[in-house]
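Friendly challenge for the regulars: who can give me the structure tokens for this chain first? No prize, just bragging rights.
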Amino acid sequence: MELAELEIFRAVAAEQSVTRAAQRLGRVQSNVTTRLRQLEEGLGVDLFRRDNKRMTLTPEGDRMLGYAERLLALAEEARQTVRSEAPSGRLRLGTMEAAAASRLPEPLARFRADWPQVTIDVQTGTTQALADAVAESRLDCAIVAHPAAGDPQDADMRELGEGLEGRYLFTEDLMLVTPPGHPAPRTAADLQVRSLAAFAQGCTYRKCALQWLAEQGGDPAQWTLLDLNSYDAILARVMAGTAAAVLPRSLIDMRRAPAGAGVTTLRPVHSYLIRRAGFDTAALREFSRRL
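First reply, four minutes later:
Bragging rights claimed.
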């Protein structure tokens, strides 16, 4: 198999369309179709189901995608490493929403000013989703929060995924935000709402909130978890009086807590820049220096 075929396969898997994949890659549609067929014939399996012009991965195709991601990432790492010591190519960066809003704008701007030839792809998600993407070579690195308390140098990145290593970046105070007029809670028993607004499962802040509930004698099973996809939506639920939430202090300071909302410190949470063990490019090194 050839790298060009893997690139085409990955693009079709992402776009679920030969036409859109051809546009994305700057190729003619017939070339994409031919190279994809050649890959399938070489492997002896169908990688896609073809229904009403929509291309969806077969089980074999789904397994193949992981290998394609790793092979293409290794090829890009090799190209960047042997060409020169100067950053080049593409840096695929993952980050939590909070870090994207409060921590990344300045480092990204400095890096872009110094190395305009590097293309930076930024993807947001929960800590676990980002860690999985790094482990599977779909991202080069990611800024994530680790659920372990204590000394930040002692955190084990293997809790997020095998083959990952991380560099400590910063510590956030995780804050419990309660609706206007709610008395300041000392324990979970003092909370008058029984809904927690948070990002989806895999979010470290959500996990820490549930740990706090359990440690304070509350039963997380008695709580309704509201899976939301933005901090604005989370704060809206709090201000409506229907939920409590957990947010990092940096985000609260940046946006200013809405008038009347209660803010209580829960615990510190450490954040890291993670990558696959041994992964190293000039672009990653230069970006890491700016964090």
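The longest helix spans residues 59-83. The chain has three domains: 3-81, 83-170+272-289, 172-268. Your move, everyone else.
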